[in-house]
Amino acid sequence: MKIAFVGFGNVARAFARIIDERRTELAHRFDLTLSTVAIATANHGSVRSTDSIDLINAVACVEQGGNLTRLPQTIPIADTQSLLEGCDADLIFETTPLNIEGGQPAVTHIRTALRRGIHVVTANKGPIAFAYEELRSLAQEHEVEFRFEGTVMDGAPVFNLVESCLPGARVLGFSGVLNSTTNLILTEMESGHSFEESLKEAQRLGIAETNAEHDIDGWDAAVKAVALANVLMNANAHPADVAREGIAGITVENLKSASESGSTLRLIARARLSERGIRLSVAPEKMSVTSLFGSARGTSNVLMLETDLMGELAIVENNPGVEQTAYALLSDLLNIHRSFSRSKK
Amino acid sequence: MKIAFVGFGNVARAFARIIDERRTELAHRFDLTLSTVAIATANHGSVRSTDSIDLINAVACVEQGGNLTRLPQTIPIADTQSLLEGCDADLIFETTPLNIEGGQPAVTHIRTALRRGIHVVTANKGPIAFAYEELRSLAQEHEVEFRFEGTVMDGAPVFNLVESCLPGARVLGFSGVLNSTTNLILTEMESGHSFEESLKEAQRLGIAETNAEHDIDGWDAAVKAVALANVLMNANAHPADVAREGIAGITVENLKSASESGSTLRLIARARLSERGIRLSVAPEKMSVTSLFGSARGTSNVLMLETDLMGELAIVENNPGVEQTAYALLSDLLNIHRSFSRSKK
Fold first, then answer.
1. Any chain B CB within 8 A of the CB of A322?
2. CA angle (A238, A153, B337) in 5-degree steps
């Protein structure tokens, strides 16, 4: 399978290391051999290859601040769009950062790839929040797969869980702690650290969004809530539909006073069916420290699904890091490979 | 699809109600029409049908203490074994109660059905704990499916989660609150109720095993731990391998004293990789009330999987009832139908 990368940041590079390390296992256990035909980056050049790009060389090059055009047997490409229009990849990994104003240019990247009959895996939640219906139809029309498990809760199965493991059941609503940065900040503040110290800790761990205000203001959680509602509940919602309140106004004193009544604060994303359709919200909520949401500390995420036939079911991701987002790309890749090889039989 | 029931207790009857209610949806959404050709029970007779047995009549008959042979167009069958050898079902639902001394007669029922090329769905954990390797091979050999999602955590995806949603990842160990009866008892005792009162409450809710000692002594959790280890970790383990301690020795005072240090007690099933293979245990453990396990109260179950690529991932089932176990049968049925129809294309 020929693969290409659009975006080659932390997540894509962690994924590149995994598929390099597991090369033998992928070949033997899954009958899958990968060859990298192109990489597009914003600050380190964009290239396609006459052969196959050595991923470990590419990772080292970018991490040393170099330009990919220096790698052997590569041809420089002017921009991502030309790369997508010209490359012969079977699958692209789209991992550019979230743009909360419409999801571009990721939506265009994905549209171009799908139209050319290329499978797409993305870890960028923007396209799912802003253009899910269109991209899903496009994928169906061109008989390719469009997968995005990493957009919510990293590699923890959320979309695949409902698709593969809850057949015949309906998602009626959900609630969740979906943003690691704000959860880490609230947990740190519980122990008396200031907001600023706690934010710095999140940045030190490399989990904060490129623009940390997107986390603090609840935008990241709101975009994830919309992605979940669009895919799991056919909501056809838009990030602007979310009643959104961030954590900027929360003080150490608020948390102390909650603690006196056995509670704490969590930034909760919710979707509820109402008479006027699906209502989405993101807001700090008071939760008992002995509740499931109260038990989610640090970078941990929790999603509680409310279903018709299976009652309430939650998935918890315990203290994830970039490796877990990288795993989402692997899981999507293997799912595509699985249905791809099945359909060829 | 022609189906048959071996065992027609609470779970099977709740499932029968679901498939009757959702008849139209199953036909339209999944292109699945079910026809019941046989039902075997221990105390209400065993029958096969010349036509299709009306499930709602059968449910009513059993719930009124009647004998299935009274139903129209049925032929009485002497015993389950003859029924399995003679019926022309495509799929059987095996829901006889757990026998912790070897898993019989369920193992024999399943063996007979698989050998005859009949798909099997079971909610009985005995066969998975005592004969998984053999039954899995038998299913492969006869090109039929053998599914058992309901054996651990009811319809919450556990086996399907790892099979479908964690491709390429390895389960290195697990820990979980897997027995609802003991968890309800411990939760009730936290609030000061006596052991006996709490056990009665579990029995009143209909969640205790037929023999409640199997719950109290940790047998149910041990058999589930073995089922998980056999399927998810290829442990080839046996219930006798589990270091097992139940909750009979726990007093309200123990819980009070744990509570003074912000803790509580939970019956935890564990699997750990060690140099001498996979070590399995079931024992009451002290857990912080603010931990994930501490947050599991009442009949709730939690399973925390430790994996190589996806880190720690938990699934939580919030206060399930018999409907959630019945959903497991539906989920297995739909999964079989899905791969069945795919392979026919």
1. no
2. 90
Task: For residue A12, give the amino acid letter.
Answer: A
Kindly report the nearest CA distance between residue B152 and chain A, in angstroms. 14
> Per-residue pLDDT for B345 more than 70?
no
Tell me if chain A has a CB within 8 Å of the CB of B1.
no
Interface test with B, best of A165, A291, A323 (most B CBs within 10 A): A165
DSSP A98: P
- Candidate list B2, B125, B200, B224, residue with the active-site label: B224
Give CA separation, B302 vs B91, B171, B297, in Å. Answer: 30, 16, 10
pTM for the model stands at 0.95
Contacts made by residues A70-74, CB under 8 angstroms, sequence distance 24+: A71/A47, A73/A49, A74/A47, A74/A48, A74/A49, A74/A50
* pLDDT over threshold 60, residue A344: no
Question: Residue for token digits 């051999």?
Answer: A33
- Catalytic site residue from A200, A224, A256, A286: A224
At B40-80, the pLDDT tens digits run 999 999 999 988 999 999 999 999 999 999 999 999 999 99
| Record: contact B318-A311, CB cut-off 8 A | yes
- The answer, for B157 touching chain A at a CB cutoff of 8 Å, is yes
Nearest CA in chain B to A23: B168
pLDDT, mean of residues B192-209:
87
Report the amino acid identity of residue A336: I
pLDDT score of B209? 66
pLDDT at A210 over 70: no
To the query of whether residue A224 is one of the catalytic residues in this protein, the response is yes
Output the pLDDT for position B300.
96
Beta-bridge partner residues of A243 = A281
**Selection from B186, B193, B216 nearest residue B289 by Cα:** B186
Contact with chain B for residue A330, Cβ under 8 A = yes
Distance CA A295, CA B305 (A): 17
pLDDT digits (tens, 9 = 90+) for A253-280: 999 999 999 999 999 999 999 888 999 9
